[in-house]
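Continuing from yesterday's entry. The apo prediction looked reasonable, so today I'm repeating it with nicotinamide-adenine-dinucleotide included to see how the binding region is handled. Same sequence as before; SMILES copied from the compound registry.
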Amino acid sequence: MKKILVTGGLGFIGSHTVVELQNEGFEVIIIDNLSNSSENVLDGIEAISGKRPVFEKLDLREKQKVQAFFAEHSNIGGVIHFAASKAVGESVENPLLYYENNLGVLVYILQELLKKGDSNFIFSSSCTVYGQADQMPITEDAPVKPAESPYGNTKQVGEEIIKDTCKVNPQLAAIALRYFNPIGAHPSVEIGELPLGVPQNLLPFITQTGIGFREQLSVFGDDYPTEDGTCIRDYIHVVDVAKAHVAALKRLLNTENTENFEVFNLGTGKGSSVLEVIGSFERVTGEKLNYRIAPRREGDVIQAYADTKKANDVLGWKAKSTLDDAMKSAWDWEKKIRKGTEKASV
Ligand SMILES: NC(=O)c1ccc[n+]([C@@H]2O[C@H](COP(=O)([O-])OP(=O)(O)OC[C@H]3O[C@@H](n4cnc5c(N)ncnc54)[C@H](O)[C@@H]3O)[C@@H](O)[C@H]2O)c1
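Holo prediction written out below.
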């Protein structure tokens, strides 16, 4: 079985993907610098899949270490590249950190892959590249809109770097997966999302408020042109996202790809408003959520949900879990990690 390198494999989406890869018999090596994760995640992965992946603590910004890693591991069959910084607000404050970590590192890895000859590469992209798309649901050929933040820009430019590199290097095969809104945790509750500081995403904010770690959730705007006035997103269970990576990897390993750079949306195809997500929380937990309507937040698009036909037909993959399934796993995970902790100070 092929050896697969998973960068950022101790993070939220990476750890769930490592589980699915190991369940399918792949041998996994994780590189992570623990900047947004913990080594304990290895225990969770092992508890679920019965196998502890090889782990190398390495900061991918250290180019020489990246070169040394690839020189030592000449038999890597594919790379799934999750490692990146992902806080939109922080990217506005510190753009160079984002350009170095999300783009510099990408270049270093691609340089090593080109030295290898035939290689397979999967990139974590985002629906943020579409901005406020003109049509719903969003297909892969919808135009890429000017990025709202340095973080968003790293995903657009990252895709361009890979595309340009693939154009002149037929031995490199790559897939960019544009995630919509990954949420939830593994149903075993052994791994999940570990947001540091104030969560920027809706789900962890909801569960942290639900458990009393945070006082109140602010719903940013209820006067958008949607049915209930709140913003609409496509929430997808992280285990479904993880499984799509295995499908994409197999496509490359079996040389089923029709071009050497392909792009797929990963979503459910269903948009849910903020109030619908709160409704799901209340239904699943039987608890009332303390929330208030606040002014609109700058940079929020009104609605974004995926056309999933290409991923469904070409990758042979389809998101299976419902919003309530994902909510239940997120809530079970929150209860587990929050046990005995005090209220947030910020
Ligand atoms: N979570 C989302 O909502 C979402 C949506 C769209 C795209 N993405 C992208 O998916 C990828 C994974 O996201 P996630 O939510 O799992 O994030 P995460 O922060 O949980 O995981 C990223 C992992 O990469 C590691 N890392 C960061 N910089 C590194 C470096 N220089 N060297 C080694 N390791 C490094 C971190 O320690 C962390 O474990 C990212 O590229 C992110 O931009 C995420």
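Comparison notes:
- The first strand starts at residue 3 and ends at 7.
- The radius of gyration is 19 Å.
Will overlay with the apo model tomorrow.
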